Amino acid sequence: MFTDAHLSRMEEIMRDVCTDFETDLAEFNGETNHVHLLVNFPPKVALSKLVNSLKGVSSRRMRQEFPELAAHYYRATKLWSGSYFAGSVGGAPITVLRQYIKQQNRPV
């Protein structure tokens, strides 16, 4: 359901949210039904609060700007499901992580 235009706008929105949380969205990419984020954040930031804000703000703004997405909402009213995956990558080089995110399929 996400097109390149949707994902481009979503990246802008999520970068703004990360800035508000004093975190760094190092890499973003997405597929037709989900996104991949590489975020650098300090220990003072609660991951659950960051994710909740990323999902809530992006859902609200995308609903306003792209009403056609409503036909694909999760459970008819939500852009995102309540679940997410987060992994810690303490020793991996940032270049490897960025390459992984960039290699995910992005629709055209």
From TrEMBL:
GO terms for molecular function: DNA binding; transposase activity. It comes from the Bacteria. InterPro entries: Transposase_17, Transposase_17_sf. Residues 2-104 form the Transposase IS200-like domain. GO terms for biological process: DNA transposition. PANTHER family: TRANSPOSASE FOR INSERTION SEQUENCE ELEMENT IS200 (PTHR33360). This is IS200/IS605 family transposase. It comes from Nonomuraea cavernae. The lineage of its organism: Bacteria, Bacillati, Actinomycetota, Actinomycetes, Streptosporangiales.
